[in-house]
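B., you asked whether I could sanity-check this one before it goes into the benchmark set. Here's the sequence:
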Amino acid sequence: MIALIEYGAGNTASVSNALNSLGYDHLITNREDEIIKADKIIFPGVGEASSAMRRLHMNNLFNLLRIVKKPLLGICLGMQLLCERSLEGDVACLGIFPTESEKFDSTKTKVPHMGWNEIEIKKESLLFSGIENGEYFYFAHSFYLPINNYTTSSAVQDVEFTASMQKDNFYGVQFHPEKSGEVGMRLLKNFVELC
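And here's what the prediction gave me:
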């Protein structure tokens, strides 16, 4: 069973639809007991970081997400919230990855970064099993994570930034696999079946 975390800041409906089309049993939940019982956890996110962190605290999910030992996939804002800090609202996040988000410079590039963009795979990851270097995924974000020791793929929007990363059982993707067609569905399938 997959726990799809609902905390008022996630694009749970589109992720749920993707999981349904792949035939995976899942539960949309914000309950600690149900998340603990799950085999895999998907942590989506859209919106603003400080508001999202406030909702995590209100739902008593902050400590659970920091210590969970099961595979967890953060999507878009969900990935950024796995880091130490977000400059969006200047808020402390979950602290899994030792990096913080930055905002794209609107004087140099279009903000938000929205649409299809090519990724460059930097490190081997089970998430990208059967996915070619140079594939295109769908992005929608104004803040980004710099390249760091845990970056597994990157993309470029004026600056090169982290498109995905991994540390132990924590996986993150800046793009939206649920909106990225066949290649995105392959990535979700890899997370559920291989990670």
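One thing to flag: The mean pLDDT is 95. Otherwise nothing jumped out at me.
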